[in-house]
Amino acid sequence: AEASADVDTDDLYFLPYLLGERSPMWDPDARGAFVGLSRHHGRAHLVRAVLEGTAFNLLSCIQAFRASGAVIDRIDAVGGGAQSDVYLSVLADVWGVPVRRRTIVEEANSLGAAVTAAVGLGITDFSAARALSEVTAEFTPDAGRHAVYAERHARFADAYAALAPWFAGRPR
After folding, report:
1. Residue among 18, 6, 4, 81 at smallest CA distance from 46
2. How many C-beta atoms lie closer than 10 Å to residue 119's C-beta?
3. Alpha helix (H) ranges present in 68-133?
4. pLDDT by residue (tens digit) across 67-90?
């Protein structure tokens, strides 16, 4: 993915619904798709479209949180995807907020489950998770790229809306 740092997808989109889609669309019939694929698109275009497609999908979730009153002014990234500077830069530009890499990578899921269990048992609250890792890098959104991504996100959402009836009508 690092090699795709400066690649423009050239109007290629990826709908990342390989297992259907949960929040905020709740559509178990949704499926993954490359939309706008042409013969001139190469591997770097496909990789970049996948990075952007997952970022666009997560932006839809962020927008749903914001619509219910949540203030999101930065996001901390953990896990395998957080190892990629390119991906975190794309996320910051798409979301329009700083994205910070934390020291937890492979252990992120297990540690998250442990903190959630401790919260459920009344031992602590979710703020305890911050003490378990440190910020190692911060990716600040570029205003120009963010504006372009806002337009591309709308087109991404249109692609899903156009294909949703087709997904729903597929043979089971």
Report:
1. 4
2. 15
3. 85-95, 108-120
4. 999 999 999 998 888 999 999 999
